[in-house]
Design goal:
six-stranded antiparallel β-sheet; 3 helices; globular; disordered N terminus
Length: about 160
């Protein structure tokens, strides 16, 4: 579902919990932001990391699992809000250190480096991890624990 509200564009999609979903989420970013948006490349990378984490580390990646992606773009100051709702796990998402030859383990470090802020919280259907991208930002503060509010992703698409 895509909606346009004044100077803000938003899109929401329910995706299967499969590796292909990261590419579908990147396509959503390009559709909503367009190739000339100052944060389009960062947003595509961040949404790919968040969706990949949801598939690899939560019940969303299990057979029949789903996840939701919401992308909101504002005209000023070119901010982009990305939210990924997954089916949850017992662990709280945290950045971790990865050795130079590790193939995994850098996703949230990348999100923290690119986002002005990010956070995560549990909801009744799992967990929402969100971030805000703003051109020319400082690196995000990394949460030490669950954040009290990480934005709204619908539990299910209306309709």
């Amino acid at each position: 579902m895509t909606a346009r509200r004044g100077r803000c564009q938003a899109t929401y999609a329910e995706l299967r919990g499969s590796p292909r979903s990261a590419a579908e989420a990147r396509e959503l970013v390009f559709q909503i932001l367009g190739e000339n948006h100052p944060s389009v490349d960062d947003a595509a990378l961040v949404v790919s990391e968040l969706v990949g984490n949801a598939i690899a580390h939560t019940r969303s990646g299990q057979s029949g699992g789903t996840l939701a992606v919401a992308i909101d773009a504002t005209a000023q100051p070119d901010s982009v809000f990305i939210r990924v709702r997954d089916a949850g796990s017992l662990d709280v998402p945290r950045p971790r250190s990865a050795d130079a030859d590790d193939e995994h383990g850098r996703g949230l470090l990348i999100v923290g480096a690119l986002a002005a802020e990010w956070g995560t919280n549990r909801n009744r259907s799992g967990r929402v991890t969100c971030c805000r991208l703003t051109p020319g930002h400082q690196a995000a503060n990394v949460p030490e624990r669950d954040e009290p509010h990480a934005g709204h992703v619908p539990e299910r698409e209306a309709g």
